[in-house]
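Q: Joint fold for the lines below.
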Amino acid sequence: MSTSAPGTTDTVLHRADLGVQLDPTRLFGRSGPLVLEVGFGDGTFLVHLAEAHPDWNLLGAEVSLGSVARAFRRLRRHGVRHARLYRGDAQFLVRDVLPPGRLHRIYVNFPDPWPKKRHRDRRLLQVPFFRLAASRLEDGGTILFTSDHQEYFAFALEQAEASGCYAIAQAAPPPATLTTKYARKWRAQDKQIQHAIFTKTRTPDASFAPVIDTYDAMHHALFQGTLPEIDTFEKHVHAFDDGHVILLEAFRPVDGEGLLFVVRIEEPDLTQEILIEVRPSDGQYIVTVKAWGQPLATRGTREAVGLVARWLRERGMTEVERFY
Ligand SMILES: C[S@@+](CC[C@H](N)C(=O)[O-])C[C@H]1O[C@@H](n2cnc3c(N)ncnc32)[C@H](O)[C@@H]1O
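A: Joint structure:
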């Protein structure tokens, strides 16, 4: 693999800028082992990886915007040019953006343990993530997991085993994993820190197709007729194959023109809260997803626009065009 100097300098990736199934060679301006850190926090470990492995192309995913800003400044201070940061859910990045079989390694250092029983389904390291990750890891690729939480550690090992895609080994934590912000915190409390290596042995049968439908156009519809009044609105829930849409609220905008629907869409590895607008235009009404919140066109937005369209049809309006 070539390890020439990376050709791009834009460090922070934006969700709307990502193409479906990213070409890592284009993103980094070179080829090289692609390595992801999930939940990089303040970026201490990413900087370590960058300095220890100048030939690796590093991706980091982190949901906290404050952490992304801190890590970004740290990478800049250290002159790191071969790392890219994504602000958002790592599962979405892995599923929608990373091509199958391309990841060399995934690091997960001190993931949130969600110790309460009723919160356990929020844990990252569960069968669905292990299987999704196995679809994106190269053969023999690894997930390296370090944790201070004994119960989550045992749980993650069981889940990896149940996924049927990994050989599992335990080892002493690599010294650099003991220098992260959380490692320092737990070590100061004398907590035992454990480390596991999950080596991919099998590609799962499911392909884990991206959730995004298209980047070219957002779902919409065109209506004629009289806009219904809304005195009261009851929440609508609509389930489809592996997700659901909830129309939470509908109201008239302040200018009294048209309607706005507040919608929540839950799909595999992606939850979106969007606004669907019914807006007058040339004597007709356009039903569109507002750009607010950088919505992505998915099966869910198609179902949501379809649900609003049905709501309008049921109230006597005529659909003259549809893209959903
Ligand atoms: C306990 S902190 C550990 C941070 C860092 N790895 C360290 O060792 O200092 C867990 C981090 O994971 C991030 N996180 C949680 N769920 C995530 C997800 N689904 N995708 C990306 N980051 C996530 C949190 O925002 C938080 O910064």
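Q: Anything notable?
A: Helices lie at 24-28, 44-52, 65-77, 90-96, 127-136, 150-163, 181-188, 299-313. The CA atoms of residues 127 and 161 lie 8 Å apart.
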